[in-house]
Structures are given as C-alpha cells and as structure tokens.
C-alpha cells in the first residue's frame, strides 16, 4: 500500500536509558516527524481530498494545511533551542486544533462553516467600512492614499466574493451577537472539543506572548543574592514542548479518520498506525516525568 511505503517510522529506543534532556529531545523530534508524516499522508488518501473541493472541505483542509506548516515552523524553532518562541506558536496551534476539532465534529452542520467564514470576515468588513469612509475624507485624496485604499478594498472584496458572502449583507452587530464563533468563547470551545484539561496550559502560553513577570523571570532573568542579572542564554526546550502537542494533534487526527475514512479495513489500519505512534509518545512522556522527578531528588 502506498501509504505504508511512504510512512516514516522512528527507530524505537528505550527512553529509560536516556541520561539527559538532549537524549529525550532528539528522540522526541523523531517522533514528531513520524507523526506529522502520517498526519499529512492521511489527508491525501485518494477520495478524502480531491483537487477541487466545495467550501466546507476548503475551510477544513485549509486549516489542516495550516497545521502542517505551523508544525514545521514549530519543529524548527524547537531545534534552534528557543522555548519562548515555541510557547507563542504553541498557543496558536492549540486554538487552531480546537477549531478543527469542532469543525470535524459538526461537519454536517452547514451553519457552523458559514458562521466560521462570517466570523473571519467581520474584521475585514470593519476595515472595509473604514476605507470607504476615508473615500469621503478631503485629507485622504492624495494619489498614494487613494491607490493603496483601492488595492486594499479590492483584496477584501475578493475575499468576500470567493466566500459566497456579500460584503454589504454582513451586519457586524448581528454577527457578534448570533454567530457561533463570535459568541462561543475560547474556553467553551475547548470544552466542546473535549479538551478542557488543555485550556489552563493554553492560558499560560499567553505569558510568552506579552512577557509577564513569570515569563521574564523564568526565561530572561537570573536571581542573585542582591538583585537580578539578565540571562543571555536561551532556555532550552524539553519534551514537555513536544509530547503533549503530538497527543493533542493525535486526538484530532483520530476524529478525522473516523469521520472521513469510509473503508473499514483502511480505517482500522490507519487507527493502528496512529495508536502505535501515540502509545510510544505516551510511554516516553511517562519516562520523562520519572526522569524529572529523579533529577529533582538528586538536587
């Protein structure tokens, strides 16, 4: 089978023999690669995705493609040893995953997809109205301003046109009150997706985005007896930046396989490949936790 021939399976290692963070991270990177090769292959199975798709599949598969690209960037950031940048991107990944999970679960609900597009276009609509207002502003009639405004308006009009939604028919105040994605706060979305336990870590990830005290203290400062020094060394990522994210993606991919793979034999084979990978990830996660506990005791 082409799928099996294209798989990348990391060489299995006994994580209990690892003696350093680098040992764990090297193996985690390989498991990350294994999972995301499979993640990409599943979406491209014949009959799951075709060259031309209708708007619902366009939204869902566009988001899945976004996850692929973000995870390539995420892996590069981790390999470059920047935990702060990884945490910023991790927050984005979690939110996209929650949205994808809801879209898979409610795939037969056309209104969920229509609302998703409308919610995305609200900001565009507000900016479009701002540009239209500037058309009547005497101070905004110089040629550079007019040309830039027209280009931006055409771009927004194209976005609306290809969404099937009329820019003039989108009433922002109505959408903010009634649109599923506008009225359903992110905490509720985590709950609907079955990821309530992940919400607290999602909230903590925001520390890296704006740099609160916890983030600055743990990454950029060194406490000394009479004050602080700036820490110019990077805080090196550890498996806690990798393993939970693979498991999180794995839960969403499992739902995707259940929903979109109609051949029972193929579905069973895919579920086994996925479970084998996730079982190894969970095993390494448990061993790493023991490693951290033993390290703390030694200190």
Task: Outline the biggest β-sheet.
Answer: 2 strands, antiparallel
Radius of gyration of CA atoms, rounded to a whole number: 23 Å
Quick one: overall form? globular
Class per helix and strand makeup = mainly alpha
Order of helices and strands: HHHHHHHHHHHEEHH
How many β strands by DSSP? 2
Outline the low-pLDDT stretches.
none
Q: Helical region count?
A: 13
> Mean pLDDT score, rounded?
88
Overview of the structural elements:
With 299 residues, the protein is an all-alpha fold. The chain has a domain of 145 residues. Helix content is 72%, strand content 3%. The protein has 13 helices and two strands. Strands 1-2 form a two-stranded antiparallel ribbon. It is globular and about 70 Å long. The termini are far apart.
Notable characteristics:
single chain; 299 residues; 13 helices; 3% strand; globular
């Amino acid at each position: 089978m082409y799928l099996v021939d294209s798989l990348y399976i990391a060489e299995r290692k006994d994580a209990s023999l690892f003696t350093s963070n680098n040992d764990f991270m090297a193996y985690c990177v390989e498991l990350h690669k294994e999972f995301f090769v499979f993640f990409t292959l599943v979406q491209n199975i014949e009959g799951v995705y075709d060259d031309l798709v209708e708007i619902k599949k366009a939204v869902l598969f566009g988001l899945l493609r976004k996850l692929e690209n973000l995870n390539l960037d995420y892996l590069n950031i981790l390999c470059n040893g920047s935990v702060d940048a990884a945490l910023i991107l991790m927050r984005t990944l979690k939110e996209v995953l929650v949205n994808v999970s809801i879209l898979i679960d409610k795939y037969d609900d056309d209104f969920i997809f229509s609302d998703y597009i409308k919610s995305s276009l609200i900001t565009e609509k507000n900016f479009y109205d701002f540009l239209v207002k500037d058309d009547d502003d005497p101070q905004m009639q110089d040629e550079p301003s007019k040309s830039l405004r027209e280009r931006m308006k055409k771009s927004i009009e194209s976005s609306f046109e290809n969404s099937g939604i009329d820019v003039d028919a989108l009433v922002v105040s109505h959408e903010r009150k009634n649109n599923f994605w506008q009225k359903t706060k992110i905490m509720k979305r985590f709950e609907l997706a079955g990821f309530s336990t992940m919400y607290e870590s999602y909230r903590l990830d925001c520390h890296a985005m704006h740099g609160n005290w916890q983030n600055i203290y743990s990454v950029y400062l060194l406490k000394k007896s009479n004050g602080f020094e700036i820490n110019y060394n990077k805080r090196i990522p550890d498996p806690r930046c990798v393993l939970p994210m693979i498991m999180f993606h794995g839960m969403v991919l499992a739902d995707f396989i259940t929903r979109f793979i109609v051949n029972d034999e193929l579905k069973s084979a895919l579920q086994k490949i996925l479970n084998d990978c996730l079982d190894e990830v969970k095993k390494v996660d448990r061993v790493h936790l023991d490693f951290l506990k033993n390290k703390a005791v030694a200190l």
